Amino acid sequence: MNNTLTDRIACAFARPAMLFAACALAMTIAFVPGTALAGADDEGDLDAPNAAAADGGAGAATAQEDTAADDAVHVAADGKAASMDGSPFALEDFSRSQVGSNGDVDGAYAGYRYFVSDKPGSLAVIATDACIVVYVPNDVAEQGGFDKSSSESRSYLKSLLIALDSENSKGGSVLTRQGNWIFSSEPIVEYEGVEYRFDQELKSGEFYACVIGADGSDVTDTGNPSHVRLTHADMATLAPADEVSVVGAPTGFVALTSFLQGIDYSPLWVTLKTTLTAIVFIFILGLAAAYFSLRIPARAQDIADSIFTIPMVLPPTVCGFLLLLAFGKNTALGQWFIDIGFPLIFSWQATVIAAVVVAFPLMYRSARGAFENLDPNMLDAARTLGWSNGKIFFKLMLPLSWSSIAAGTVLSFARALGEFGATLFLAGNYLGITRTIPIAIYFEWMNGNTDVAMFWTAIIMVFSFIVILFINLWSRRTTKYRRGADA
Fold this sequence. Notes:
The chain is α+β, with helices and mostly antiparallel strands. The chain has helices spanning 5-14, 16-30, 58-68, 138-144, 151-167, 252-261, 266-293, 298-313, 316-327, 332-339, 348-372, 376-384, 389-400, 402-417, 421-427, 437-446, 450-486, and strands at 35-38, 73-75, 82-84, 89-97, 101-105, 108-117, 123-128, 132-135, 181-184, 188-191, 194-203, 206-213, 230-240.
């Protein structure tokens, strides 16, 4: 609500308790030079009367306009710089620290600390669940045109910090206008028993922002009465707006072209190479295992079938762990591969092995089921005609079972294409070597690159659809040919 100065004075005298509280707050702030507080909806300087308030509430209107002007922030495509319409200053060289360090430095506890720069005088922000402390050294503020006593100037800085922080959050906590914002030009700010220290040269040529109890205690300890939850810290360079170049992200077709050019396509080639190689082994081994499992005694068939099928029911991570135990350097087999100069662990070959083991049961079960459904009298009749087992297999069993075999091939290919757990366990995540598309999707999403993760998701879905459609059409053509021959 916008009130005139007369209304506010009358209201204050009508409420003595409120007047006393306001005076006490003003006296408290007076003992903290260089510090200003701003609430969620008030950009005014509580250190001194807001001069703009004397013009019939224009100061509050300006604050509202500044809040609405967040949309006028221009963020660089790389998320490292930002400017704002009307702001005399801008930010560049922005960086964000999600975690810091907590421990002694040269035998003394320095608090929870974030590395800021190799030189003093950088703008820094420490965000906690209790407050957001913004440190702007006097010389930096003077050179950049930032006036901490101006609600408009603080609003500009808020908007710039919020925009850059959100751009670089990667799924973490972000700055918002809500909460207690403290702007300070002093290197040490105390708030509710916690000291926020800036420009702390804890090591030679290394300057940190630290959070420590006023009594020197660890405020990250939940048992500490002054405990605060630290979320992150931001660092940036404040400079005059005309000295900062902010190149925004492209739009339209240019944006699409830029996005596609910026993607590393190595996961696609690794996936294709791995899957195509694996499907050859899966196809041959699956058919061979299905054929020979039917030619052994019934009791042995049950054991063999259980062994060949178990990778299908085990979690992929368990399969990967077992493979890691089998081919690790602590086993005779793994050591032998190392001795011959061909270590399997964390190599491209490991991705093939993982895909083969996990997808093999699908091919085996499909082929065996197809072979079991063949008429045994027909096979015996072929033998009476002098056909060898090899001729019966290739000329009779395969053509008659092709529909099921093609389906098994499709399922195995899709399973190998989407393999993640066993591959990550056995082969790891090495860009250009073992990073397949499923692994790329996971790590891109974890790193906050949702657009890239969605791109790879679309690629693998489209590719899977095309391959499955091709094999189904081929299978249908083969089935028609077989029916024509039977007629």
